[in-house]
Specification:
With 304 residues, the protein is mostly beta strands. It contains no helices and 24 strands. Keywords: Leucine-rich repeat, Membrane, Repeat, Transmembrane, Transmembrane helix.
Length: 304
């Protein structure tokens, strides 16, 4: 259970404090405004509590200019993300996951050029992804999942060449998946499921040799899965269920020695299940129901 009650405002009097971590407790009530006046603070961690307040509009305007890590996830915080966050120009890590933040992602966020990780998942954020996010070229992790974002994914996202994780799943994005995503050669995880994306899977995706999983499930994608998927040598998992895909399952998947999970149910896939899938000894799940498959299943597959 840990500590309970409210965070005492007097903690803000610790003017030389560099790191404050009150995570994994049962604190409730607001974040004391005095915390936002701590001019020496570099690390603020308040995650996994029951804190309920908004962030001050001017939270970074006067102090917190040395702040590098802001981790206030898993609380009951609400209101908009203040645009003054840009004035915390030393920020490298921001996590606001699993709160009740609403409104848009402020465009001045593009001024946080040192930012390496930005996690805003599981809130009530809306609007478009600001194209200014493409200026954050040090980003390695970007999570905008489980919100109410709309519109197209900005092509400027291709500028984030250090990105290893991109999660845009469970929103209301529409249009084609931008081919520029295929230029993110360091990407290991790509989540775009549960949106309204349409059109084919971009050919550039099949050149992403570092990608370990991609999830495009529950969209309106069309076309077929390319045989070039055999080039994705790091691939472990594919989520393509509940789309409008056609064509056959590429036998080249059988050459992906680390492959573990194939989910393509609820499409219009035809042909037979490639016998090459029986070579995938690490496979833990194959989901191909509700398609137009025919023929016999692979003789040597332990799962079919």
């Amino acid at each position: 259970m840990g500590l309970v009650g409210t965070i005492p405002p007097e903690i803000g009097n610790l003017s030389f404090l560099v790191s404050l971590d009150l995570s994994e407790n049962s604190f409730g009530g607001p974040i004391p405004s005095s915390i936002f006046n701590m001019s020496s603070l570099e690390v603020l961690k308040l995650r996994n509590n029951s804190l309920s307040s908004s962030l001050p509009i001017d939270m970074c305007k006067h102090n917190l200019h040395k702040l590098k890590r802001l981790h206030i996830s898993y609380n009951k915080l609400f209101g908009e993300i203040p645009s003054s966050l840009e004035q915390c120009s030393q920020l490298e890590y921001v996590s606001l996951v699993s709160n009740n933040f609403s409104g848009i992602v402020p465009t001045p966020i593009g001024n946080l050029t040192l930012l390496q990780e930005l996690y805003l998942g599981s809130n009530n954020l809306s609007g478009n992804i600001p194209k200014e996010i493409g200026v954050l070229t040090n980003l390695a992790g970007l999570d905008l999942s489980i919100n109410n974002f709309t519109g197209h994914v900005p092509r400027e996202i291709a500028n984030l060449t250090l990105l290893q994780l991109l999660d845009l799943s469970t929103n209301k994005f529409s249009g084609n998946i931008p081919e520029e995503i295929g230029h993110l050669t360091k990407l290991q995880g790509l989540g775009m499921g549960l949106n309204k994306f349409s059109g084919p899977i971009p050919a550039t995706i099949y050149g992403m040799t570092s990608l370990e999983y991609f999830d495009f499930a529950s969209n309106e994608l069309s076309g077929s899965l390319s045989r070039d998927i055999g080039n994705m040598t790091s691939l472990r998992r594919i989520g393509l269920e509940d789309n409008n895909l056609i064509g056959e399952i590429p036998k080249e998947i059988g050459g992906l020695t680390n492959f573990e999970r194939l989910s393509m149910c609820c499409n219009n896939i035809s042909g037979s299940v490639p016998r090459e899938l029986g070579n995938l000894t690490n496979m833990v799940g194959i989901y191909l129901g509700n398609n137009a498959l025919s023929g016999m299943t692979p003789k040597h597959s332990p799962l079919l």
